[in-house]
């Protein structure tokens, strides 16, 4: 019979590289590690771990089983959390992923209308698209607002469904006193010598849009700093020490900055609502209502 402790032992051996190290990691005695491993191998009828003078390694069968064991363990953790939420709150709990700009603009009023804190218990998780997508796939989140570069391959995983909420073109953000700030349209080539505030990730939509547009204009952007902190980005741009790529809805009007289109195509940021395709019966109606409210808030026709 399978035992969750067997899964933990196999996982620890894979991570630490030996039975002794796995015992220390799990605070077990080494005989206990050997017992659980032997029981699992006997149940499956095959060797899962090979031992040598330098340690232990999983066999192909061990690697295969561990992939499934980790997925099962994740799902069980989600189930435990959802049962605890039902026990503690007695109603629907939604874990929603979001990112700063769209989350601050779309979610507050929508969640108020949804009944967050009253009829629905909401837990917000802020993060970047790839991290939020992973949490959607492993069941840690029920839904999320994600963004990408329009034209990217849409989510195709059968476990998820999506709806596009917004498409917004990228703009150049300049300080209000920048020499080009008065231009209605900017030629990106005129910023070839500018210092840019860029994303830390090469996978970030704005970073990919910038590199593509700058490359087409014949230059590689100089980097002032890498940052995802919008307050920091705005402060540097307002001081005229750097420029950045942004969408107009993310411009903070408290700073003396302007956002201008360019002669070149900078691309479009797409914002999507992505949710699990198979919600529990208690969550299905709430997710559908949340999606409708977001569609209304975003002005989707």
UniProtKB/TrEMBL annotation:
PROSITE patterns reported for this sequence: HTH_LYSR
The organism's place on the tree of life at top rank: Bacteria
Keywords: DNA-binding, Transcription, Transcription regulation
Residues of the HTH lysR-type domain: 2-59
InterPro entries: LysR_HTH_N (IPR000847), LysR_subst-bd (IPR005119), WH-like_DNA-bd_sf (IPR036388), WH_DNA-bd_sf (IPR036390)
Pfam families reported for this sequence: HTH_1, LysR_substrate
Family statement: Belongs to the LysR transcriptional regulatory family.
Record-given protein name: LysR family transcriptional regulator
Origin species: Gulosibacter faecalis
Organism classification: Bacteria, Bacillati, Actinomycetota, Actinomycetes, Micrococcales
